[in-house]
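Hey, quick one: can you model this chain's 3D structure?
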Amino acid sequence: MSGGSMVAARGGSTPELERTVVARGSRAPVSVRPPPRGEAEPGCSALLPLESMALVALVWGRERAAELFEGLKESDAVRARGYLAGFAALSSARRQARVAVEFGVRPDAAARLRGVMEASPEVLRREIFRRLPPYHRSLFPSLQLEPSGPEATEQVCALAERLIREATR
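Sure thing. Here's the predicted structure for all 169 residues.
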């Protein structure tokens, strides 16, 4: 690109270049042989799961999520908007859980859990530890699993669960 077109591409007179849309296509070279039974052809709906695309669009695009599907085939865009409507209807906690299930636990979950445990008062720390899955409990070898006491109110338990979700997802 020349200097003049670079300036135009950065924003002055070409609003099309400022839009972001989701599009699907094959990055790998297309094989000459027909795909085996059960595999999708390039440009087909099964290349990327529309449900995952809708979830990512909602998480990252929020209000603009529906607009991001303009680059898809019309049938795929309609299905993706349907998934989007379903995800938008979920509560925040359920949406976060769905993201965690779909895309996994945060890579820095261990460090975040340690930080939460250090910053929490003793009662909350015990409840957090009680509610951690076994593979996360191994991060805290000095703690032992104890039964819940009377100081572990419903609010403390709910907060412990929320802090675990926030640290790991």
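One thing worth noting: The radius of gyration is 23 Å.
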